[in-house]
TrEMBL record:
Its EC number is 1.2.1.16. Belongs to the aldehyde dehydrogenase family. This is Succinate-semialdehyde dehydrogenase. Residues 24-486 form the Aldehyde dehydrogenase domain. The keyword Protein transport does not apply. One of its GO terms (molecular function) is succinate-semialdehyde dehydrogenase (NADP+) activity.
Length: 497
């Protein structure tokens, strides 16, 4: 029988309610949907199935709160975000437990996510008082031009399940720092972490209506459309697939909303023959298999220069063979389940396609149903070629496909041969090569001699079909601000006696 996790503070587990206008409310219909543990399939509990009508009070609350919140000072908003950060850190163990319970990632990894998520509150607490305008020299004598920055308004936020805490805080933190209010749809697969974060917002004293966090599953398409079409919402921030991002853009066009889109990826991971192999192997393992490969910046295509191919592959395989799959709460487990059976089917289809086209499975390559329906062995495939699905589609699972290449020019061409442009990684000791390749890669984020690139202080976002806009860093708050130019005439002339 599966062990039921225990929380130090059981009140952080919010079942049957969403957070709207500072209160915990049910869906008007009374409908709910079930949240299950992906490791065991066991029921955790149920949360509200909000529909479009349920959104109206949330939008109204956010709009009413915005009229006051936009006038608060950056320092006032900073103190609220800092308190929220402190509460997340104080409750880090419980938040990590919720993440592992509903997402499946190992507890150690979940604890890392909580720290990562909380860091956005800390970072933007420090950015909130530093929203500066400019004094611009005018071309007309006697005129003076200044610019100010103002919050865009109510923000609709749509987040994915793979980082149930991190994706919510990465969007809400800069929105609040700028003076916006938010209506956030927590992911249907992993809503409990977001609701716990909402409870901590309440405890932090975030004013009523400033933060609203709701849940839905079957009604997700309608709720997403409402976010994009409702006149109260002035900006939509979305993290998810490119296909859904395109649909949301279309739906937002009639109302000309401000958009931030963090979409799909197909990251290349390049190892040149002058690389530090130990560093490169460790980076590839961490980058590819983090969260069982379920991140948008995971290495999707591993390119290894021919002269070191055999040695890199040998060391890489040895590392993967040390993994331990299982329930994320079990000691020593390094990798948990995929989020659901559909993900398992997609991963297996990529493996079968590669094998059919000449690829060789050297590790894994099959589901592990004795562990549970959502488990798939971490897999390494050699002899991968450009005609295989893994070369052009985002796998979002624990498959490492190893390609080979001969020249710098060749591998950059291969790396850029994708519609996506989110992240890319490469390893080299040659400083001149580092400069050339980093500039030539067509992505928004480059990791040089590292496989981990996410940081609250670094701008995160892509180009091409990976979207637009940046999250985190000093640039992240700009996504939630308008620039207003004010020109003063008649300011010249002599002083009056």
């Amino acid at each position: 029988m599966a062990r039921v996790p225990k929380l130090n503070d059981p009140s952080l587990l919010k079942l049957g309610v969403c957070y709207v206008n500072g209160e915990w409310v049910k869906a008007a219909s009374g409908k709910t949907f079930e949240v299950t543990d992906p490791s065991t399939g066991a029921l955790i509990g149920s949360v509200p199935e909000f529909d479009v009508a349920d959104l109206e009070p949330a939008f109204a609350a956010a709009q009413a709160a915005f009229q006051t919140f936009k006038k608060s000072t950056g320092r006032q908003r900073s103190k609220l975000l800092r308190k929220w950060y402190d509460l997340m850190m104080e409750n880090a163990d419980d938040l990590a437990t919720l993440i592992t319970w509903e997402n499946g990632k190992p507890l150690t990894e979940a604890k890392g996510e909580v720290a990562f998520a909380a860091n956005f509150f800390e970072w933007f607490a420090e950015e909130a008082p530093r929203v500066y305008g400019d004094n611009i020299p005018a071309s007309v004598p006697g005129n003076r031009i200044i610019t100010t920055k103002e919050p865009v308004g109510v923000v609709g936020i749509l987040t994915p399940w793979n980082f149930p805490a991190g994706m919510i805080t990465r969007k809400i933190a800069p929105a609040l720092a700028a003076g916006c209010t938010v209506v956030c749809k927590a992911p249907g697969e992993t809503p409990l972490t977001g609701l716990a974060v909402a409870e901590l917002a309440h405890r932090a004293g975030i004013p009523k209506g400033v933060v609203n966090i709701i849940t839905t599953l079957d009604n997700t398409p309608d709720v997403g459309k409402a976010m994009c079409t409702h006149s109260v919402v002035r900006k939509v921030s979305f993290t998810g697939s490119t296909a859904v991002g395109k649909l949301l853009m279309q739906q937002s066009s009639a109302d000309l909303k401000v958009l931030s889109m963090e979409l799909g990826g197909n990251a290349s991971f390049i190892v040149f023959d002058d690389a530090d192999l130990d560093l490169a192997v460790a980076g590839a393992v961490a980058c590819k298999f983090r969260s069982s490969g379920q991140t948008c910046v995971c290495a999707n295509r591993i390119y290894v220069q021919r002269g070191i191919l055999d040695e890199f592959t040998r060391r890489f395989i040895a590392q993967v063979q040390q993994f331990k799959q299982g329930n994320g709460f079990e000691a020593g487990v390094t990798h948990g389940p995929l989020i659901h059976e559909r993900a398992v089917r997609k991963v297996d289809s990529h493996v079968q396609d590669a094998v059919k086209k000449g690829g060789r499975v050297v590790v894994g390559g099959k589901p592990t149903p004795h562990l549970g329906a959502n488990f798939y062995l971490p897999t390494v495939i050699t002899g991968v070629t450009a005609d295989m699905a893994i070369a052009s589609e985002e796998t979002f699972g624990p498959i490492a496909g190893i390609f080979t290449f001969d020249s710098e020019a060749e591998v950059v061409r291969l790396a850029n041969n994708t519609k996506h442009g989110l992240a890319s990684y490469f390893y080299s000791k040659d400083i001149h090569r580092v400069g050339r390749v980093a500039e030539a890669l067509e992505v928004g984020i480059v990791g040089v001699n590292t496989g981990i690139i996410s940081d609250a202080s670094s701008p995160f976002g892509g180009i091409k079909h990976s979207g637009f806009g940046r999250e985190g860093s000093k640039y992240g708050i700009e996504e939630y601000l308008h620039i207003k130019a004010v020109t003063y005439g008649g300011m010249g002339g002599p002083l009056q006696n």
